[in-house]
Amino acid sequence: MTPPLAWYLGLSAVLFAIGVLGVVVRRNVIVIFMAIELMLNAVNLTFVALARSLGSIDGQVIVFFVTTVAAAEAAVGLAIILSMFRNRETTNADELATLKW
Amino acid sequence: MSPLIFLLLAALTVASALTVVVHKNPVHSACALVLTLCLLAVFFVGLDAQLVALLQVIVYAGAIVVLFLFVIMLLNLQVETRAMAGALLVGSAAAGGVALAALIFAALGRTVAPAAAVPAGFGETAALARQLFTAYLLPFELTSVLLLVAIVGAVALARKPT
Questions:
Q1: B37 and chain A: CB distance < 8 Å anywhere?
Q2: DSSP β-bridge partners for residue B84
Q3: SS3 per-residue string spanning B28-79
Q4: φ and ψ at B93, to 5 degrees?
Q5: HSE on the CB side for B137, CA within 13 Å?
Q6: Who contacts A20 (Cβ-Cβ below 8 Å, separation ≥6)?
Q7: CB B98 to CB A61 under 8 A?
Q8: What pLDDT is recorded for position B24?
Q9: pTM, to two decimals
Q10: ipTM for the complex?
Q11: A98 φ, ψ to 5°?
């Protein structure tokens, strides 16, 4: 007996909510970034679970693309954090508020 | 995967995901992220997605988190003294998070699951590659352009201004 689809969807909903929580609550830009990765992975789990239950491989192909986009996003985002740190000597999101109204 | 093992692994996954968000030391957060990603890979294997599970471990836990750790070490981040936002924001964010999880689950939980029969070789490299190089050929090629742009962008951003 395998766990029903709803269990996987519930787990991915919880993981996504934890990711949102991290983005809202944490002040360190790098940890906010990790929380975003967490959200991407929660969506990946949904894709894979639905691909299995629909018997279609398309969901897994989408996960492949999500992983690629996540890699590109991590590379560019961490480069931005690096140059931000070089200019401002901080990774605290509260102190990086120049663009805030 | 038996339901008991599922519940055990799900509890572990949620606990390590919470560690990522809650822990004050960014290095420990990154290590907890590795654990979360590897546990998700176990779920993928249980869902007949062997190749995706391998990619998850190699690309995500291997490459991306190492990039995170590299930047954390490079910036020499210490344990944060004020890692969290104010108590009011934390409390309302936790309540909002629970509400969001309930909302997503309420929306997805009604999904009709026909539980289709899985064809032989489902989730193996051959099946995935066939789909990737036929139906998804254009997005696949565009992905390589995206990666090129990301490489150039990362180098341009991280380079010391001369």
A1: yes
A2: A26
A3: HHHHHHHHHHHHHHHHHHHCCCHHHHHHHHHHHHHHHHHHHHHHHHHHCCCC
A4: -65, -40
A5: 4
A6: A35, A39, B96, B97, B100
A7: no
A8: 86
A9: 0.89
A10: 0.91
A11: -60, -35
Q: What residues have CB less than 8 Å from A1, skipping those under 6 apart?
A: B2, B3
**In this complex, do A68 and B146 lie within 8 Å of one another by their Cβ atoms?**
yes
| Domain extents in chain B | 1-80, 124-162
Distance CA B105, CA B112 (A): 13
For tokens 């909002």, name the residue.
B96
Task: Give A50-93 pLDDT, tens digit per residue.
Answer: 888 888 888 899 999 999 999 999 999 999 988 888 888 877 88
Mark which residues 41-80 of B lie under 8 Å from A by CB. 43-44, 46-49, 51-52, 55-56, 59-60, 63-64, 67-68, 71-72, 74-75, 77, 80
Residue written as token pair 């599970």: B53
CATH classification code of B1-80: 1.20.120.1200
Return residues 28-57 of A near B (CB < 8 Å): 28, 30-31, 33-35, 37-38, 41, 44-46, 48-57
CA distance B134 to B146: 20
